[in-house]
Structure to design on (53 residues):
């Protein structure tokens, strides 16, 4: 179950990074990782705010 969530975050991070950087760029994997971390952070913050209510 957990692997599917991580894979979904990586796919979304890759798709979002492809909007800003070409896929054949040497730093695409770095941008993809940063986007994935941002997506995971947004999900954690969203979950924390939902639980706060």
């Amino acid at each position: 179950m957990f692997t599917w969530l991580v894979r979904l975050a990586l796919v979304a991070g890759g798709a979002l990074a492809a909007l800003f950087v070409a896929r054949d760029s040497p730093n695409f994997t770095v941008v993809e990782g940063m986007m994935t971390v941002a997506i995971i952070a947004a999900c954690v913050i969203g979950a924390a705010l939902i639980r706060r209510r």
